[in-house]
Amino acid sequence: MPELPEVETTRLALKNFVIQQVIKSVTLRQLKLRWPIPADLDKKLHNKTVLDLTRMGKYLLFHFQNGALLLHLGMSGRLHFHQEPCAPGAHDHVDIHFQNGTFLRFTDPRRFGALLWTEAPFAEHKLLKHLGIEPLIKTFNAAYLFEQTRRRKLPIKSLLMDSKVIVGIGNIYAQEALFEAGIKPTKAAGLLTLAQSGRLVKAIQSVLKKALKSGGTTFRDFRSPDGSRGYFSLKLKVYGKEGLPCSVCASTLKTIRMSGRSTVYCNFCQK
DNA sequence: CAGCGCCCCTGCCCGC
DNA sequence: TGCGGGCAGGGGCGCT
User: Which of A81, A124, A167, A257 pairs as cysteine with A57 (C-beta 3.0–4.6 A)?
Assistant: First the structure.
């Protein structure tokens, strides 16, 4: 999926289009996503007004007076706001039609995404209540990360990607942040020094902010909700650079697999 | 409890 | 060209 920058980019692009819109109907073509889409969603959302669109980690929340629609883009999910009718393609699973004739389309070829309904208080929803800290807020700092990593034996990369600790960091930005901080992905989290924790926090924030600024890194499947393909404006230093020379020391970047995901790093720059 | 793999699914790319 | 295998941005869950 899109990681935090892509989800936030999606949210910002959609926000002004969907807020205050009144739902006319919901078309469901495929219920089988990560979890089944509630079949009675149309009934639940009929005549309801979208009050707000927020983000918690990589979850988007469409707020209504009586609850919230919880949406996760999974690996390949996209949201596209349409101003006029448009025939659905193979993976266009959901259309949310508004009373003014516009509609929001949820497309997800791999179907790892999710669309769920949650009654207030939504923060108590099982998918949301254990979410960790947002990486771009002030309280995510060296002391926080240092404290969170004590006595943790798992590799630091795995910890970065654990949404119970920190939200929004996926396989791309975990690798990029670790490279920028000069820390090996395999290093046991508990062995980080306070100084390294500080460098890692700075690196995470810098990488995410750069990606946000460029509207989210755009990869194979990711498309901004306005339909543009975007571009690879964020210069990735290690992700997908297997076998290429390190941009700092020119030694060949190394690739390993960590919990099923490929991980690229520089064996010399990262300690 | 902590940590690690599995698996849900389709598309794409590569090698044969 | 066709086909099989491997891999892709996630993350909850079940097992050890």
Answer: A167
pLDDT tens, residue by residue, A110-163: 999 999 999 988 889 999 999 999 999 999 999 999 999 999 999 999 999 999
- Distance (Å, rounded) from C-alpha A34 to C-alpha A215? 26
Q: Is A210 exposed, middle or buried (0-12, 13-18, 19+ CB in 10 A)?
A: middle
In whole angstroms, what is the distance from residue A37 CA to residue A29 CA?
10
Containing A160, the helix (H) or strand (E) segment is helix A156-160
- DSSP string over A28-58: ES--BSSSBPPTTHHHHHTT-B--EEEEETT
Residues 6 or more apart in contact with residue A161 via CB below 8 angstroms? A169, A170, A171, A174
Q: How far is the CA of A65 from the C1' of C10 (A)?
A: 29
Q: What is the rounded CA–CA span in Å between residue A84 and residue A157? A: 44
Tokens 């960790």, residue?
A132
What tokens does A188 get? 């046991």
- pLDDT tens-digit profile of A237-246? 999 999 999 9
pTM of the predicted protein model: 0.94
Q: Which residues touch strand B (CB under 7 A)?
A: A 32, 34, 75-76, 90-91, 109-112, 152-155, 158, 220, 259-260
